[in-house]
Amino acid sequence: MKHINIKTLIGTTILTMFLSACTDILEEQPRSILEPGFFKTEQGVNGGLTSLYAHLRYIYGNAYYYNSGVTGTDEATWAQSADQNFKVMDVSGQGNITPTIDGGIGTLWSNAFPAINTASGIIENATEVGLKASLIAEARFFRAFDYFQLVQTYGGVPLDMGAGELMFNTSPSRTSIRNTVPEVYTKAIFPDLLAAVSDLPDAGRLTGTVTKTVARLFLSKAYLTY
Predict the structure, then answer these.
(1) C-alpha to C-alpha distance for 146 and 149, rounded to whole angstroms
(2) Which of 150, 152, 128, 135 is nearest to 41 (CA)?
(3) Which H, E and C letters describe the chain, residue by residue?
(4) d(CA 49, CA 204)
(5) How far apart are CA 88 and CA 106, in angstroms?
(6) Do residues 202 and 212 lie in contact, with contact meaning Cβ atoms separated by under 8 Å?
(7) Per-residue confidence (pLDDT) for residue 55, from 0 to 100
(8) CB 15 within 8 A of CB 8
(9) How far is CA 106 from CA 34, 64, 156, 157, in A?
(10) pLDDT per residue over 101-119, tens digit each?
């Protein structure tokens, strides 16, 4: 009995010391996500711009993205070690393309829309935080870039993600309405690229950042594709 009482006493003492030491409230500072209020700060919009460049790795760094656009063309087909994902995207009777396969059909969709929403958040809050026109132009370029990739791959895609066309959305929505291909070009791609051409610098602010020339090249490609 004495042994039990001593253990209980020790446990109670340790718990009391622990509780007395934890009097401060933990202030959360998200690092892996961009929460909506963050965009109302200069640090937030600059962080958003960085994420727009970073999201390219999840598209061009993904083998299935290339698989969805190259396999089955004159450039490439599946080889000996290919799994069903690559064979299906070959469009040679090996299977049917569905939303559930992993062959790359959803890679672009899943990564482009979050980046588009981030770009819209930057654009909407740019004036409030005093963001320079050249930095806003970078966000406009990426929003146009992602919509251009989407419309070439899927045809008409939604311009409204729940808060209105080309508006920053902070509430998850499980419904959407596809805009037509002409609407995606004339409401999103062309206006954003024209603004980017106007406001981007001739030389990038950092190594690898977008410039006026890059925007001109994508605008010309978009016109030709349209």
Answers:
(1) 5
(2) 128
(3) CHHHHHHHHHHHHHHHHHHHHCCCCCCCCCCCCCCHHHHHCHHHHHHHHHHHHHCCHHHHCCHHHHHHHHECCCCECCCCCCCHHHHHHCCCCCCCCCCCCCCCCCHHHHHHHHHHHHHHHHHHHHHHHCCCHHHHHHHHHHHHHHHHHHHHHHCCCCCECCCCECCCCCCCCCCCCCCCHHHHHHHHHHHHHHHHHHHCCCCCCCCCCCCHHHHHHHHHHHHHHC
(4) 14
(5) 14
(6) yes
(7) 92
(8) no
(9) 22, 9, 15, 13
(10) 666 777 888 899 999 999 9
Identify the weakest region by mean pLDDT among 48-62, 77-91, 104-118.
77-91
Two tokens, residue 66: 């290339």
Q: Is residue 16's pLDDT more than 80? A: no
For tokens 């030709």, the residue is 224
Which amino acid appears at position 63 of this protein?
Answer: A
- Tell me if 220 sits within 8 A of 193, measured CB to CB: no
Dist. CA 220–CA 226, nearest whole Å: 10
Tell me the residue length of the chain: 226
Question: Measured on CA atoms in the order 77, 83, 85, 88, is the torsion positive or negative?
Answer: positive
Own/partner pairs for 56-60, CB < 8 Å, 24+ apart?
58/107, 58/111, 59/107, 59/108, 59/111, 59/112, 59/149
Cβ atoms of residues 149 and 198 within 8 Å: no
> Rounded CA gap, 40 and 99, in Å?
36
89 burial (CB, 10 Å; 0-12 / 13-18 / 19+) is buried
